Amino acid sequence: MGTGKSNDRIRVLFFDEAVAFGGSVVVLAHLFDHIDRTRFQPLLVTSLDEGSIRKLFRPEDVLCWYQPRLDYSDRMRWMTRCPSRLGLIRRLWAYAFTVAATLLNLPRHVRLFYRVWKSGPAIVHINNGHEGLAAVRLFRFPMIIHLHGISHDFLFGPFDTRVHTRAFVSISKYITSQAIKYGVPPQRILDIPNPAPVPAPSSVSDDAWRERFKLPPDAVVFAHVGRLIRWKGQLEFLEAFAKMAPDCPHAYALIVGDDVEGFSTQYPQSLRDLVQHEGLTGRAVFAGHIDNILELMEFADVVVHSSIDPEPFGLVITEAMSAGAAVIAARLGAPIELIDQGVTGMLVDPKDVTEFAAALRELATDAPRRKQLALAGQLVAREKYSPQSFARQMEAVYEKVARDVAGGERAP
User: Fold this and answer.
1) % helix / strand / coil in the chain, to the nearest 5?
2) pLDDT tens for residues 147-177?
C-alpha cells in the first residue's frame, strides 16, 4: 500500500461516478488542469465514457475506469417501472435492484477496491457517487466531500458521512443552507463556487454558426444550454419564446443539449411537439450536444437558464457570463447568488410565462441593453470565478486535511 505521497506530493484520489458529461465533471476537469502538480498528485476513478475521459483528463491521471454492470441511471429507470406508488412496494422494488446490482457488480467492486487500496491516497475527494464512500469506510482514508447537490441517500448511506468527513466543499450558499438543514456541521463546510474559464479564441466564425443552424444575418440568438430533462425547463423557455415570438421576428431559439443518460426519452419529443404546435419550426432549432460550448456561448446574444427546480449552482450561467453573453436565469436556488438583477443579468420565474416572455422580449429588442448586461457579467465572472482561484482554494483544503492527519488529529 502507498503512503499517500509521491516525491513529497500529496496524493489525492478523486471519485467521480457520473456516467455522462455534466457540470460536476467539468468542474473536476478544471481542477485537474490548474492544480499545482509540484505539490499534489491527482488520481481519478471515473465512470465516464472513454471519449470524454480522453478529452477532459490526462491518461496518467486515471487510476481506474470503473463502469458497473448496473449504475444509478439504471436504478432510476428501474424505479420508473415500479408497478405501484405504495411506499412498501416501492421500497421492495428498490431493494430488489440493490440486491441485483450488488451481485452483478461484485467482481468489479473487488478490482476497484484493490486498485484504490494499492494507490494509498493521502486524501479521498468524493466528487460524485457512492463507491468512494464505501472505499473510505473500508480503508479509513481521510475524506472530503464535494457537495454539488444534496441527497439524503448520499449523506446517510452507506454510513453517516456527516461523522466521517473531514471537510465538505459546497458550491453555493444555497447548498450550504440545505446541508445545514440535513445536520452537516457548518464549521466543516467551505463555500467554494464553481469555476468559469475564459474561452479560448473562437475557431468558429459567427457566419459559420449561422450557416450551421440556418439563421439569418440579423438573428438575435437565444441559446438554452442544458441536458434535455424536465427540471432544466426547456419547455417553459419555449412557451415563453412562443408568446413573444410574434412581436420579435428576428429572435431565434437554440435548444442546446441532449438526453445523454436516457432518463427523459419522452421529454425531448414533447419539446419538438410544442415547437410544431406553436408554429416555431425554423425559429426554434434543436442543436443537440455541442463540444465547443463556450464558443457557442460567445456567438449567442443571450444564454437562457430556466430550471424549474432550485439550481445547486448553475455553471451555464457563469460560463455564459465569462463568454460575454447576456444572461437570463431562473431565480430558484443559487442563481440569485450569481446574478445582480438588472446589472449582470436578468432573473425570472420560469413558470411565469408572462414575466419570462417580457424578459426575452426586452433583450430581443434592445441591443444596447444586451451589451450592457453582457459586459458587466463578463467582468464579474472573470474576476470571481477563475479556475486558477478555484484550484488555489481547493489546494488549501487538501493541505489543511493533510496537516491535520499528519498531526494525529482524529476525524471529527
Assistant:
1) 50, 20, 35
2) 999 876 666 655 677 667 999 999 999 999 9
Q: Which of 315, 300, 312 is nearest to 381 (CA)?
A: 315
Q: Indicate yes or no: pTM above 0.90.
A: no
Backbone dihedral region of 120: left (phi > 0), alpha (psi from -120 to 50 degrees) or beta?
left
DSSP-assigned letters across all residues of 148-161: SS--HHHHHSSS-H
- Residue pair 150/179 in contact by the 8 Å Cβ criterion: yes
> End-to-end CA distance of the chain, in Å?
25
Rounded distance between C-alpha atoms, residue 290 and residue 296, angstroms: 8
Sign (positive or negative) of CA dihedral 146, 151, 153, 155: positive
77-120 per-position pLDDT tens digit: 888 888 888 888 888 888 888 888 888 878 888 888 899 999 99
SS (H, E, C) 96-114: HHHHHHHHHHHHHHHHHHH
For residue 200, what is the DSSP state?
P
Q: For the residues of 164-197, what is the DSSP string, one character each?
A: H-SEEEESSHHHHHHHHHTT--GGGEEE-PPP-P
Q: Which residue has the cell 443552424?
A: 213
Between the alpha carbon of residue 144 and those of residues 28, 141, 183, the distances in Å are 14, 10, 16
